[in-house]
């Protein structure tokens, strides 16, 4: 784990100061745009699916929906990814998948987000279709082809393998490592 462990401070003032100076160095305006977010993570030039995923992550971090991630939103995101309780993370994942924001995830939404994640992470043990079908098979209790937040959280929390799979597939700590250690390559 390494870098992620060094992130697990106690939310102290020096730690906040460390993030603030890093954030301001990478983003002097104090407002991180989607373009700067991609640049910071070295994720320009992705295919459309990958781009879509990064935009979804950005939009969820952009709590007030003003098109920018400011320092407080940045810290909230870091806290969630590093210190968040499992159900908070699952709520966040649910929000990520629920592309149209209607409070349910359908197969198409899950398939498109998983395809996008594969485009970024590269390696995977199963196809996006297999992954999507498996999730629905396991946790769509009433077989209506949609997952509510409750079905999603209960389903994932009661299945150790699924929990591990979801956590591994959507692990954002590599995103945070880049932020923690500065850009991978100076521009």
TrEMBL record:
Q: Which InterPro entries match?
A: EF-hand-dom_pair, EF_Hand_1_Ca_BS, EF_hand_dom, Recoverin
Which region is the signal sequence?
none
Q: What are the EF-hand domain coordinates in residue numbering?
A: 49-84, 85-120, 127-162
Query: Per its UniProt record, what SMART domains does this chain match?
Result: EFh
Q: Name one GO molecular function term.
A: calcium ion binding
Q: Which GO terms of the cellular component aspect does the record hold?
A: photoreceptor outer segment
* PROSITE patterns for this protein: EF_HAND_1, EF_HAND_2
Alphabetically ordered keywords of this record: Calcium, Lipoprotein, Metal-binding, Myristate, Repeat
Please give the superkingdom of this protein's source. Eukaryota
- Give the protein name, as stated in the record: GUC1C protein
Organism, by scientific name, is Crotophaga sulcirostris (Groove-billed ani)
Phylogenetic placement of the source organism = Eukaryota, Metazoa, Chordata, Craniata, Vertebrata
The gene it comes from is Guca1c
């Amino acid at each position: 784990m390494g870098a992620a462990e060094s992130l697990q401070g106690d939310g102290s003032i020096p730690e906040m100061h460390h993030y603030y100076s890093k954030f301001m160095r990478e983003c002097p305006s104090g407002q991180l745009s989607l373009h700067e977010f991609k640049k910071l993570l070295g994720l320009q030039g992705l295919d459309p699916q990958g781009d879509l995923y990064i935009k979804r992550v950005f939009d969820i971090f952009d709590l007030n929906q003003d098109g920018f991630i400011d320092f407080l939103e940045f810290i909230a995101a870091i806290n969630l990814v590093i210190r968040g309780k499992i159900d908070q993370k699952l709520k966040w994942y649910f929000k990520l998948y629920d592309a149209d924001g209607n409070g349910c995830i359908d197969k198409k939404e899950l398939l498109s987000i998983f395809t996008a994640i594969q485009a970024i992470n590269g390696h995977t043990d199963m196809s996006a279709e297999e992954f999507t079908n498996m999730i629905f098979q396991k946790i769509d209790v009433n077989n209506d082809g949609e997952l509510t937040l409750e079905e999603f959280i209960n389903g994932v929390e009661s299945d150790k393998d699924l929990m591990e799979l979801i956590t591994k597939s959507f692990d954002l700590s590599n995103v945070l490592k880049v932020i923690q250690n500065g850009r991978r390559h100076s521009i």
